[in-house]
Specification:
5 helices; 11-stranded antiparallel beta sheet; 252 residues
Amino acid sequence: MELRPYEYREDFFVYRHDGDYLGNIQPGSLFRYAQQVANTQCAVMGITDETYAKTNTAFLLARQALHISHMPHVDEKLTMITAPERMRHAVNKRLYTVYDSNGTELAFIDSRWVLVDLDKRTILRTRPPELDGPWAEESLPRSLPMRLKKAETTEEAGACTATYSRCDMNGHLNNSRYVDIVMDALPLELLQTHAVEDLVIYYHIEVPLGDSFVLRRGRLEENKWYFAGWRKDACLFEVNLTLRPRAELEAR
């Protein structure tokens, strides 16, 4: 598979601990693969933890969307290709495409990041020299819809905590673990027959290790759901999920 400039490729094997009880990949696992391949590409380009420490900056994930056209399954070899786009109005876009061993596109992820000054906690509209360079496409050709629809009424779906196993090296709830939490809050009888086709998530406020929040859930329409995490009067994140019959997503 020939790569365009600024694209980076990494191959993955879907281990069984990345799948669900029916043998399909978990949506959160796709986001974890995406996180890994982005970090690897940045390291190859010379953007490392030391670079962020020197510039006192960090990239924070603002929102991302996932579309699954064919469900990846366990014991399968996947290829993920990612590419970043140059900063536009303080937003850094990065895309990921997942293929099977035959070159069939299985899933697509559209993510939007902001670069922040860790001292001032402000969003940067220009990059420090150490983070600027010919490392990104001027414009990426694809995107996913990211408009989020809120439910008119919601119900409490349980309390959640940023526990040890859910947090990353930044000491916060990892971006992919929000998805795990939401999936756990769907009715089990629904997950027996349906799987995620589309997902949109907005990250509003980070959840530090040990902090808790209340998850709220609302049905938008048939097979479409809204979730939100609340800590007192602050909305921490919001999610839209669209489900589709498993048999249709598992077909290739």
